Amino acid sequence: MNINDPNKGGSNAGPVGPIVLNTLVLTAYDQSGTAVFTAHLADALVLREATLNGNGTGRSDFTFALNPDAAAALKAAIEANPNLRLGLAASVSNASGGHESFFFCKGCESPAEVPEPATMMLLGTGLAGIAGAVRKRRRAAKAE
What we know:
Distance between the termini: 68 Å
Number of helices: 2
Low-confidence stretches: none
Order of helices and strands: EEEEHEH
Mean pLDDT: 77
Strand content: 15-25%
C-alpha cells in the first residue's frame, strides 16, 4: 500500500488525524463473479511511519501478506481455476490529500541492502593489503 497524503513530519498523520486502514480484504472471483476465496488482511489498523521503501506512486509504504494457511487456500483455488480475478477492497479514514494505491506482488522479496561506500572502501583496502603481502612473500621466496 502506498499512502500519498500530506503528513506531519513523516508520521502519516494527515490534516484530520492519523490515517486508519479500517479494512483491507482480498477476494478471488470466478468467471461468474462468485467469490471463491476471501481473506482479511487488515482491520482497524492505524498507519504510522512509512517504511524504508519511501512513499510516492510505485512504492510501498506498507506491505500486507497472507498468512501460510490463507496463502495455501488461495494457491489451491488458483490451481483449481487459473482464470480467477483478484480484487482488493479497502476502507481508509482520515486520508485527504492524495490517491492511495495498492498493488499485488507475487514472490516479492525486500530488496537486498546496498553496502555503504565506506564499507566497500574498507573491503577494497583490506583486499589490496592482502594482495600486497602475498606479492611481497612471493618476491622474497624468489630472491632466496
